[in-house]
Amino acid sequence: MNDNDESVLAEVLWFPNEIAITVLNWVFRVFYIVLFGSVLCFFGLGVLSAADNSPIVSIYLESSVKRVPLNHVNCSKFQKYQINGTSGGIKTRTVQSQEAKGLIGLKNIGNTCFLNSVVQCLSNTKLLMEYITSKQYLNDIRLDTKGSLMKAFGDLIQNIWQSSSSCALNTGSFKNQVQRYAPRFDGYLQHDAQEFLRYLLEGLHEDINRVTTKQKMVLPDISDDLTDNQKAQESWKRYLRIDNSKIVDIFVGQLKSTLQCTTCKHCSTTFEAFWDLSLSLPKTSGEISLSQCLELFTSEEILDGDEMPTCSKCKCRRKCKKRFLIHKFPQVLVLHLKRFSPSERYRKISVAVDFPVNALDMSQYAAQSHTKAEYNLYAVANHNGTASSGHYTAYCKHPQTAQWHHYNDTWVTTQSVNDLVSASGYVLFYEQISSTRL
Fold first, then answer.
1. Per-residue pLDDT reduced to its tens digit, 300-341
2. What is the per-residue pLDDT for 436?
3. Domain tally for the chain?
4. Which of 5, 113, 324, 387 is close enough to 392 for a disulfide, judged by CB 3.0 to 4.6 Å?
5. Active-site hit among 391, 398, 405, 406
6. Do residues 44 and 174 both lie within one domain?
7. DSSP run (H or E) holding 383
């Protein structure tokens, strides 16, 4: 064998070894990549689970109305739990052994956090919950409307309170009835929770309205010769001739509106029903109190320029003073904090509003002196994020155990009463203390 033959043989013997080494290198690379990825995935899921109630995570999941948001695990033994401690700053959770009813999450079926938040607040409205779980509402459903929305809502609330399963509930059937009643909620766009609440309550009311035939009649104006109490009573009677239901019994109150002409000093008084009070936030630096918002709502407002009304005595447009006070307090008082500026459509007012949890004294905003009206907070609909991208959750006090919980779509956790006040509070639900009811 000559030198050339030995060289060729060496190349032939070396070539397979190079292939084997290359293949082994790639195998080890893939192995390390998979191992490293698994470790990242393990810790990443742990952090995400620990931060599931974080507004940042929730907002990211729903940051685009074009994308159906992700859901947490929809059905497992970990659906309902309580926070029992911390480990390295991350909260750990254990399953509750004996839980009260009503602690069931709702699936987010596509930007429906606004719906879930409102439903959980209404589910923890004791008067409404008892009305539904006792099935009394079935006797009140009108035959002409068939009560499709009320039935769907009743089924959902009964499943929340009477289901033996801990699985998060699908709101698809209920949402279908909502969008049949109010097509504006069709599809999977994000919506305003307070607006949805108003539409929902009005729809439920229509299905169980005790007034089955609404007569179209033109009633004369209420005489100015009557006292304010007589005017209020007559106005309320007229309202109930058209709208009278269990929903009205629970949620509707009556406002007194006073209009005084600055020229002739004539004062005209009218009374109107209200389902909630929308409160503007005072323009001030720092934290705002709920009492400041209520004082702003009931303070005197000057109507001038294009806003000048017609004085009934002068028979022409005059500069007037206008003021609202509460004449009839509802059993459930819903307060809407106007965080979204009407003048700047895409700006949210993200300032903390301090509100009392117990003994909210509303007597100073009453139309009648010596009126006693106190309320306790039982639910808060929260909005985290901006005007264009956000996420709704709810804080609710259990009507039986008085324990506060945080409802975040499918997740239900215990909530400290000391952490209810934040810059996210959007709709506040107060129940009147029975001893102060008129």
1. 888 888 888 888 888 888 888 899 999 999 999 999 999 987
2. 60
3. 2
4. 113
5. 391
6. no
7. strand 374-385
